[in-house]
Design brief:
The protein is α/β, with parallel strands linked by helices. Helices cover 40% and strands 16% of the residues. It starts with a strand and ends in a 21-residue tail after the last helix.
Length: 262
């Protein structure tokens, strides 16, 4: 069984994460296979649109915690191939067909897509505040959402598909049986446009997405080091062992008040 399945429907490629027994958690094998799939999609002259989904009751649960604990590397080891879907070099539109839980790294996959369809049961969470020394500060900014919503996302609160639809993060809500057909309808609309219009518009829209400033990115790098980094693995161990974590916070308690500056 391959951890990433693909299906060609004319000019549309359906990409399906396929570790349903692990809620499609991102282990090294899946991350490598996704990178290979997006590279092939990028260079395939017959394919113009992708539909991205998951098998089972999750779109993607994010980081494979058990693998991280085994390797001692939060987030898993670096993969060998660059992923054009994640690094912004994929120019072809991707439609998310969100079939269930979309957590942590899985949310990062969903937010990289251009259009999004979700089932009513889908649950979303930016999990970084629970796993790292810095929460998901950039995701609400990237989605161009109001500050209180971005703050709520950054601090690890959960969102329903309906709420995200109301906030404009989700384009369509569809029942499970209608999820892929609805995504395919959107894909067919894209393919009905003049080719240059579709390609040029997607390219322009990609360049209009907000990004944190260089100063803000520099501050984020320093904040990723601001605290006791043992808490990174403690958060994962507590999750795997289904217990309450025992966080330390800072090696020196006074660091709580020595915040890096912008």
């Amino acid at each position: 069984m391959t951890v990433v399945e693909t299906e060609r429907r004319g000019q549309v490629l359906i990409v399906r994460m396929n570790r349903p027994e692990h809620l499609n958690a991102l282990n090294t094998e899946m991350r490598e296979k996704l990178a290979e799939t997006w590279i092939a999609f990028r260079h395939d002259k017959e394919l113009e649109v992708a539909v991205f989904t998951g098998a089972g009751r999750a779109f993607c649960a994010g980081e494979d915690m058990k693998e991280s604990l085994t390797t001692g590397m939060p987030g898993g080891p670096r993969i060998s191939n660059p992923n054009p879907f994640m690094d912004g070099t994929l120019e072809k539109p991707v439609i998310a067909a969100i079939n269930g839980y979309t957590m942590g790294g899985g949310f990062m996959l969903a937010e990289r897509t251009d259009l999004r369809v979700a089932v009513p049961e889908a649950v979303f969470e930016i999990s970084e505040a629970k796993r790292w020394l810095l929460g998901g500060y950039n995701h609400g900014h990237f989605a161009n959402l109001p500050f209180p919503i971005a703050m709520e996302m950054a601090l690890g609160f959960r969102f329903t598909a309906e709420r995200f639809y109301q906030l404009g993060f989700i384009n369509r809500i569809a029942a499970q049986a209608d999820l892929i057909p609805t995504a395919m309808e959107m894909a067919e609309h894209l393919l009905s446009l003049p080719p240059a219009s579709r390609v040029n518009t997607v390219h322009m829209m990609h360049h209009m997405r907000p990004e944190p400033s260089l100063a803000q990115q520099s501050l984020a790098e320093r904040l990723h080091e601001h605290g006791d980094k043992n808490d990174l693995m403690e958060s994962r161990a507590a999750f795997a062992e289904k217990r309450k974590p025992k966080f330390k916070g800072w090696l020196d308690p006074e660091d709580r008040y020595r915040m890096p500056k912008l």
